[in-house]
Automatic annotation (TrEMBL):
SMART domains: YceI. It comes from Mycolicibacterium lutetiense. PANTHER family: PROTEIN YCEI (PTHR34406:SF1). It holds the Pfam family YceI. Residues 14-169 form the Lipid/polyisoprenoid-binding YceI-like domain. Belongs to the UPF0312 family. InterPro entries: Lipid/polyisoprenoid-bd_YceI, TTHA0802/YceI-like_sf. This is Polyisoprenoid-binding protein YceI.
Length: 171
């Protein structure tokens, strides 16, 4: 199995995100922890570069949120949550990679509603059969850290789990 160092060496260069092969999802407890809302974003773009290090950027259209319930989706796009009209993009800016202990952790800056926070994102990197790279990661964020409120009567839990399976193809 290739090490992360091997992958960076043999796959150096510029990469584009393949949205049709990728997923960006979230889940959050609601109804005072009795139920979990799951959702996905359907529109996103991204680029990356691997050389001596790793950099990249993924831009997610906040208005593309989908949970399967139209009324809830409209509420998530409102000022109570993502405020998609004022802040149309959610961005993930990759600024570095740490693989010192054998695992991979991207240093990212997540921006939601115009609020940016540094997030350490553990990822698995896989070379697919066609030479594309798949990065899979998951992290937990506190909604309040990004000004995402929408918590009627304490119904919505404070922690959101963000997940991504992003496939990049060589430019």
């Amino acid at each position: 199995m290739a090490t992360l160092s091997d992958i960076l060496t043999t796959h150096a260069g510029n990469w584009n995100l393949a949205p049709d092969r990728s997923r960006v999802t979230f889940r959050n407890k609601t109804l005072w922890g009795l139920a979990t809302v799951t959702g996905r974003f359907t529109e996103f773009t991204g680029t990356g570069r691997a050389d001596d290090g790793v950099t990249g950027r993924v831009v997610i259209a906040a208005a593309s949120v989908r949970t399967g319930i139209g009324k809830r989706d409209a509420h998530l796009r409102s000022a109570d949550f993502f405020d998609a009209e004022v802040h149309p993009d959610i961005t993930v800016q990759v600024t570095g990679l740490d693989s010192s202990d054998g695992s991979a952790r991207l240093t990212t800056v997540l921006t939601v509603r115009g609020v940016s926070r540094t997030i350490e994102l553990p990822v698995d990197v896989e070379i697919l059969d066609d030479g594309a790279l798949q990065l899979s990661g998951r992290c937990e964020v506190q909604r309040d850290d990004f000004g995402v409120s929408g918590d009627l009567l304490g119904m919505v839990g404070p922690t959101t789990v963000l997940s991504g399976e992003l496939v990049f193809t060589r430019v």
